[in-house]
Amino acid sequence: MASPCQILAILVLSTFVFSSLSSATYPPRRPFKKIYAFGDSYTDTGNTRTATGPIIFNYVSNPPYGVTYFHHSTNRYSDGRIVIDFVAEALSLPFLPPYVNHTADTSHGVNFAVAGATAVKHSFFVKNNLTLNLVPQSLQTQLNWFNKLLESKESKEDLDDALIWVGEIGANDYSCSVGSHFPRKTIQHLGINSHTRFLRAVLNKGAKYIVVQGLPPMGCITYSFMISSPDDRDDLGCVASMNKQVSTHNAELQAKLNILREEFPKSVIVYADFYNAHLTVLKNAKKYGFKELFKACCGYGGRMYNFDFFNSCGSPSSSSCDNPSQYINWDGAHFTEAVYKVMADSFLNGTDCHPPFNYLLNKKLQSG
């Protein structure tokens, strides 16, 4: 049973977490000493640069990336901060440095996420000639980096005080299989199994507090409209077949998380529902101040989507909108800072984490 002091600490921290993310008031002590993040471009804070990123979105080092908050490119795929940045701020921690920055201060955590990364190993895609827009890094690469860090600097005690944030992973696996002979069900099976092996490996290392993001509704992301039939739409105007695939993927992932919870009862594993968090933004766009649901703020061509695969954001021919905060989509595949802030709030303070993020925080405080 928690002591009176622990209960008071829980109440103080709960009050903080359920306040606005923009608040400058932080809890009297940090619930976690560090964060380790994994994933793809939705979580990457700089492991990918223009010279190493996915071919289609290969200008991330150029303006106007980063224009809203940092006022220069930080190699984040947005106009500003992304979800993991808001998570770090909410937990009174500095932004996570990318793993490839070997001179950065890693005392408060490291970000291993890589734009374009896949859940399945890179060698599988090479073997099957599925290398369009593919980078060589996968979840296995990120696990190898994580292991090297643990061997060189960290200890089991450090993991006891660390939050593991596994951003979405797997969307690139599906994108690479578009137009191939591989059934999407096969890609799903391989991706989920790889994701599960990764999580089990991290848990075996001693991780106690893990948040795992599911996939977003890929059918609602701008580029999906360019590679699908106009007849393949749902009630929101999104690509129906893609969202159906994502729904089955996320359901299978959650089933695997339930198995891992039974295997590791001393760890807290939270599912962050990226899919419904995004749909909530779409359905309540006016409430959040968004005027453009699908049109990219930064891109080329204007018209309905302002997106062209060969003239993506940051390229010499591209241009950006005056007010990114009115747009949901930033560059045709990624979101604006304004959207990431809403989503982070829905994970930390809202109903899109299962169990709620506050449950994880309470468990951490009770553990001392």
From TrEMBL:
It holds the Pfam family Lipase_GDSL. Gene3D superfamilies: SGNH hydrolase (3.40.50.1110). CDD domains: SGNH_plant_lipase_like. Residues 1-24 form the signal peptide. Keywords: Glycoprotein, Hydrolase, Signal. GO terms for molecular function: hydrolase activity. InterPro entries: GDSL, SGNH_hydro_sf, SGNH_plant_lipase-like. It comes from the Eukaryota. Belongs to the 'GDSL' lipolytic enzyme family. This is GDSL esterase/lipase. It comes from Forsythia ovata.
